[in-house]
Amino acid sequence: MNSPHWTATGESFEPADSEAVDPDDYETVERRVLVIGAGAAGARTAIELVEQGVDPEALLVVGKRGHGDAHTTWARGGVNGALGTLDPEDDWTIHAADTLNEGHHVNDPGKVETVTKRMPALLRELDEWGMAFSRTPDGEIDQRYFGAQSFRRTAFAGDHTGESMLDTLVERAQALEIPYRENLFVSDLITDGDRVLGAAAVDIDTGEFVAVDAEIVVLAAGGYTALYSRHSSRDDENTGDGPALAYRAGADLLDVEFVQFHPTGMVGNRYGDEWDGRLVTEAVRGEGGRLYNSGVSASDASGGSGERRSPGGERFMERYSPDQMELDARDVVARAIAKEIAEGRGTDSGGVYLDISHRDRDFIEERLPRMHERFADLGVDMAEEPVEVAPTAHYGMGGVVVDDAGETVVDGLYAIGETMAGVHGANRLGGNSLAETLAFGEVTGQAVADRLAADGDGAGRDERTDALHARAGAHFGDLAALSGRDGTHDPEALLDDVRDLLWTHAGILRDGEGLREALDELVGVRDRASNLAVGDRTDRSFEFALDLGFALTVAEAVLRGALEREESRGAHFRTDYPETDPAWRRSVVIGRDSVGAMRVDTAPVGTPSEAVQDALDAGYELDYHQLE
To answer: Which fold has domain 33-260+395-467?
Structure first.
């Protein structure tokens, strides 16, 4: 029997000896709507559907981990919305202007305005549902500074905002009796070429195959930054599932070359490999945390006396961004840190110092409880000493091309949250990721509810079901042939190879030579993937093999997009094209050509509304020194 091999684009197995699995040999679940991904975006979509009158039994939300265990919980610092709690002059148009400026004006202005208009009401809704927001002395939802924001508009729950938000959404979904299924790994979307029919999945506890027959599929399966060797996600999430599934189904990808490297990830050489790249929330800097290198003495860098200083050295952001300092845009701060380390002014462990010890202990323990507790467990008291940080891959600004309601070009297939593209442009404004999940969860939920009402009881289901089983059975046959293979190469090791080549050649700094070299290396990884050693369907190696398929697709898209964009803009910095080119105020679109290979095109971006343009023209900007 021959080993399974990859297609030219690395997107699926085609074992020569596979046989279709009969429908009697796998479970079939029928629902009108399938939501893939149980983080904030998926949960908010499902809630909106039921709020709009859709029967909960018509829905199914699936996650590949346990209930409530989603990447949302790792978004700690806050969620944006122009409530004006502390800065009454703030409004949604200024929030939109900040988002467009941070995105270097390759955002989709309509999607930006969708988010910023809706967020004040959505934050108040979360408050009504019981979210434990931090409060002002007057009992209002408190708001803090975040990088590159003109006003304090980031609402928060200590430094565990994502966790608290997801808990609130899960409780709401449970109260509405929305069905959920955990530990279900979606391996493929089933289409007839024009419309989505459902999805194929594997129960990772039992190894059983599951086909979900659905009229509508909503992809809320996260992003792709865990495809970098140093990243802020857990290794088994943000592995490109959402973008790869959509691309395989016929959707296009947009601007995937824009990968945000968060300035402050933990340093593994200091805290252990298991912590390498884990996020140190921007809230630390939002509450006044300062960055120091190890180049000069703290007293030389202080500019004054009477303050407790880091044992590191120069407060180097004074050289890079004297006005916005540590709260400049994430790409600016990340590149500054990377330069300090590269030029020998980093710590012995390969980072820089982040220090908030000038703040009172009570303040730190109240505003940053999870961070304080995490480092205390590692033997570091943030109230007394700095922590060591370095940039880490954090967020994919690009993703799937969708319309204003979140629908792709594949009829009935929607993509939201980090899986979709358009809101963030070339660099994401901190606090906007959670905002996007809420806003487009509501928008897409409303649109799908309206569509279901217009479609009636789902006429034509029998015809769709027959087509679903024909395609699902063939896919399950491929997966059955994959499991238990005694090949040469470990899929987890090949995933690590992908991560290494992206970090090396498509990281904070890129150039054309390195990107072309990475594409050549990716061909080598794909060749080795033709001879995998894979356990049975409950073995992690089987999961890694599926992840590898997603990784090869998305990594190629990132590299081709980065090679196409011959300029530097936001998080995309080409050392061979270091300037921003006005002619490149365009999006890079990745699709398929007539023979199934990747096609690279560009597309124009839109213009903001008159109200948002007025806010842009007004030139609002963060004054960091209000924090001093």
So the answer is: FAD/NAD(P)-binding domain (3.50.50)
